[in-house]
Amino acid sequence: MTPGQPPTYDVTDKDLLHQFQDRTLEPRTADVDPVTFASTMWTVQEVVDWLSYRQMRFLRETGLVVARLGYDGVGANNSIVQTPEIEAVTLPQNLIDVLRLAFVNYDAADPVVVDSVIEVPREDFVSLDAGDQNWETDFQKTPPAYTQSITETLKAFLAHPPSDIGAIDLTFVAFAAVLTGTGSEISVPPEFSQYLIYGVMEDAYSREGEAQNFEMADYCRARWDEGIALARSLLYMPASVQPEFV
Fold first, then answer.
1. H and E: helices and strands count for the chain
2. How far is the C-alpha of 94 from the C-alpha of 11, rounded, in Å?
3. What is the pLDDT of residue 75?
4. What pLDDT score does 125 carry?
């Protein structure tokens, strides 16, 4: 897996399009590429767009699949290097949401010697300005908090920026691969792929037109919510997990 990227699995978007055909009683076109819908109640592009949206939403709402930029031992450093006395942190281009940000204090020897990895809590931008007027100018070895920019999506700011060299160890929800409907691997574990279909069916049955069916949409929404709750239930674990170095 590429550092900073979510994993992929063996279920493809085409597999899910076939499942959508089966559940909506569309004739199965297993050997046809691209998939088609005989009823013409929805287009392939519409269903692929719904599927992409539901995949992104599932990842964002559950945090079940994460990407990471950080220290994984000597010679495996993919962390974000932070310049001393600089509060701004440039976040990854594929970031949806930050789950955990930690500050790494290290000695720039060869190999690098890590002194500590300390989780940095997120704070509200406005409350920092109101309660700590010197948060941008007074430096500390380890920043006590960070805040995400209220104006720039991919920027974070460290309260009391580091006085010495350091790095950011980041665990985050990342954008998934773009789905095309022609065999792209999805970024949701196979056990939860069925819930993407229920989400797509909610979208399909909620739309104005011949296929509109609010009872079916309500049922599919309940199954979607079930999948979200189930995924979240797997994540009941200590909020702070110290990385293990080798």
1. 5, 8
2. 22
3. 47
4. 85
- Token pair, residue 90, equals 């440039």
Domain range summary for the chain, segments of one domain joined by +: 39-65+187-246, 67-174
What's the token pair of residue 80? 């974000």
204 φ, ψ (degrees, to nearest 5): -65, -40
The pLDDT score that the predictor gives to residue 192 is: 94
> How large is the C-alpha radius of gyration of the chain?
22
Quick count: other Cβ atoms within 10 Å of Cβ 191? Answer: 14
The predicted structure's pLDDT at residue 32: 62
Q: What pTM was estimated for this model as a whole?
A: 0.76
Cβ proximity of 71 and 167 under 8 Å? yes
Is residue 162 within 8 Å of 139, Cβ to Cβ?
Answer: yes
The top-scoring range by mean pLDDT among 6-20, 21-35, 229-243 is 6-20
User: What is the spatial distance between Cα 4 and Cα 187, in angstroms, rounded to a whole number?
Assistant: 14
| Residue 169 three-state SS | strand
Residues comprising the chain, all counted: 246
